[in-house]
Amino acid sequence: MHHDHRRLGRELDLFDTDPLMGAGLPYWLPDGAVVRHTLEEYIREAERAAGYRHVYSPVLGKRELYEISGHWSHYSDDMFPPMRLGAEEMVLRPSLCPHHALIYRSRSHSYRELPLRMAELGGMYRSELSGVLGGLTRVRSIQLNDAHIFCTLEQAVDEARAALELIARAYADLGIRATRHRLSLPAEGGGEKGEGEGGGKYVADPELWRRATALLREVLDGSGIPYEAAEGEAAFYGPKIDVQITDPAGREATLSTVQIDFHQPERFDLHYIGPDGAKHRPVMVHRSIIGSVERVVAHLIEQHGGAFPAWLAPVQLLILPVSEAQAHKGEKLLRQARHQGLRAELAGPEHGTLGARIRAARLVPYQAVIGEREAEADGDVVAVRLRDGRRPGAVPAAELLARIAARVAARGPELWDAEGETAGVGGGDAA
């Protein structure tokens, strides 16, 4: 079944658009914001564990910054026009790398500090034509999971390979699959012919392209990953590894990238002090683990049909007292669940019959039903229903919360341990 994220996103109150805000500028509703925040915290945590340090940088820069980086010459068709402020022209940034180059350049660095891994979940803007905009996949305002690793030439392959491993781990946690890996190269002769700083799609520096391409092939070959070369898909400043995904309708898109860049360290005159006391030029490894938050959420909606893995679900546990008589027990469980950091909600009988409430919450991973039998049992007991149709039966409330917390912490798609589960048989008033 093909799930369209634009339709599902609106039906599930995840995101929407308004013509007064403009095309390609979606806003996030509370449940969508929960998914986004959870993803952002996940990737920050994964990056911190991998030795990255996070920064913030502004979404504006002077036109001169993008002239130095090469964006103005090679990428201006995708940039918003400059805004004049007195004698200066300011531009909404189309990427984060020029800002990170300046942050690196602002302090002197020794070879002992390298590799220096600088990460940011930052906003950037692309002037996409209105005809190609749609949902979260093609937008004008992008929140990118970006990072730049400043390292020695000898470190570049290992850093790029480690980035590919981070990507693979993230995909496993998100329950998504890479369709293929692509080595994206310039159009034939694009990095070699006379496309100088006056324009053209690619930086003209044959040696730069040869060196960077050789290193990326070494990364892919050393990782044992099958890949295909694709001409005309490179960044303007260098080749890249693109991790391709395919939506349920069969459309392919790039989600994650790894790039090795000799161009911008040269343009910004970046250096580090080597063991010989002299200045040396670092290599810049660009990488994005989950790509833009917008595109990855669009893919997750379509991949899972809105039934997100438990750790990502906007509501993880729905508590269902059968009648008002069990409401106080439901409220107690709600407080306990939230105290443990779970995203829990309570839907009492004022929301309709038990059957109607269960159907309305079909995408919530866990439901805890409290009927007369559960309320009268010794201790706090609930009848558990899982989103996938399984009904493990009556479970002590503390055990249920511990199980959910463990599954959330472990991530992945599993909702319940098989041990002791009674498939298709309900406990108490859960039937």
Distance between the termini: 29 Å
Radius of gyration: 25 Å
Share in β-strands? 15-25%
* Uncertain stretches of 5 or more adjacent residues: 193-199, 420-431
How many β strands by DSSP?
20
Q: In DSSP terms, counting alpha (H) and pi (I) runs of 4 or more, how many helices?
A: 13
Q: How would you classify the helix and strand content by structural class?
A: alpha+beta
How would you state the average pLDDT, rounded? Answer: 89
- Strand neighbour order, sheet with most strands: 3-7-8-15-12-11-9-10
Shape: elongated
Largest sheet: 8 strands, mixed
Percent of residues in helical segments?
25-40%
Give a verbal description of the structure.
The protein has 13 helices and 20 strands. It has helices spanning 5-11, 30-49, 63-69, 71-74, 97-105, 153-174, 206-223, 263-267, 293-304, 327-339, 354-360, 372-376, 397-410; strands spanning 15-16, 27-28, 53-54, 60-62, 83-85, 88-92, 116-125, 141-151, 180-185, 227-231, 240-246, 252-261, 272-273, 279-280, 283-288, 317-321, 344-346, 366-370, 381-386, 393-396. The strands form five sheets. The protein has an eight-stranded mixed β-sheet with strand order 3-7-8-15-12-11-9-10, with helices on both faces. 40% of the residues are buried.
Give a brief rundown of this model:
The protein has 431 residues and is α+β, with helices and mostly antiparallel strands.
